[in-house]
Amino acid sequence: MYKLKFNDKKDLIYYIIALSSIFGAIENILPKPLIFIKIGFSNIPFLLVFENLNLKDVFFLLVLKSIISAIFSGTILSPTFLLSIVGAIGIFFGIILIKLISLSLYFYQSILIKYIYLKKSNKNNIIIRENNFDLSVNILNYFSISGISIFFSFFSNFFQLLFYSLFFINDIYGFNLIFFITVLSIFTGYLTGYISNSLRKFIIFEIGDFA
User: Fold this and answer.
1) Mean pLDDT of 148-173
2) CA 78, 81, 150 angle in degrees (round to 5)?
3) Strand, coil or helix: what is 203?
4) For residue 200, what are the contacts with CB-CB under 8 A and spacing of at least 6?
5) Pairwise CA distance, residues 146 & 149, whole Å
6) Can you state the percent helix, strand and coil of the chain, rounding each to 5?
7) Residue 47, Ramachandran bin (φ over 0: left; ψ between -120 and 50: alpha; else beta)
8) Is residue 32 predicted with pLDDT exceeding 70?
9) How many other C-beta atoms can be found within 10 angstroms of the C-beta atom of residue 21?
10) Distance (Å, rounded) from C-alpha 99 to C-alpha 63?
């Protein structure tokens, strides 16, 4: 097991941005069947730590790594760069949706468990102390890394397809590719999720004062 230690969360974020930007720059020069089709290797570093970041950190990381990747690959302010930003927004939307689903499942489980326990306790005349719900839900309790990666891949590709159809070809018939995009998202999302999950078994990120 290899441990990567950081003094604070900001250092961790910059480290992930640097790794993602390098992967993204390499991926930008690879041949693609469509301008916005990518495997998503730049998301691998993000998938290693995303559950420890708040939404503000996630948005900052996704947008900045897209900008730096474009600078590295010389595509800044190009159509590829615009689609990359749109894809980052898609991933951000995806993580919001996953957090909301996880929070909903957590509330449902908590209410159900409390109801069952209350029912049993009333039979035994036991007094239950009320507890507040914890809003900091770990989404990995409800989704696998591969599932989350597929989610991210789909929303990234979907947002880019929407943008591409409306502003590049000015034709809504671009959505005829939605089935292809969905299948591709499952494949690429599972691949990057599998790689990320494998790396998680060997790499641990620690934040704190190690002086």
Assistant:
1) 86
2) 150
3) strand
4) 48, 145
5) 5
6) 70, 5, 25
7) alpha
8) no
9) 22
10) 19
Q: Are 53 and 13 in contact (CB under 8 A)?
A: yes
CA distance 16 to 62: 10
Strand (E) or helix (H) holding 17: helix 9-28
- Cα–chain center distance at 149: 6
Of 108, 184, 194, 102, nearest to 146 by C-alpha is 194
For 40-89, the pLDDT digits (tens) are: 888 899 999 888 888 899 999 999 988 988 888 777 878 888 888 999 99
What is the distance between the alpha carbons of residues 91 and 66, in angstroms, rounded to a whole number? 12
d(Cα 48, Cα 189) in Å, to the nearest integer?
14
């943008």: which residue's tokens? 163
Beta bridge partners of 5: 206
What per-residue string of b and e applies to 103-117 under the rule 16 or more CB within 10 Å gives b?
A: beebeeeeeeeeeee
Q: CA 197 to CA 179: how far, in whole Å? A: 26
- pTM for the full predicted model: 0.81
In 3D space, the residue among 11, 102, 3 whose CA is nearest the CA of residue 57 turns out to be: 11
Predicted local confidence at residue 154, as pLDDT: 93
The model's confidence at residue 103, banded by pLDDT at 50, 70 and 90, is: confident
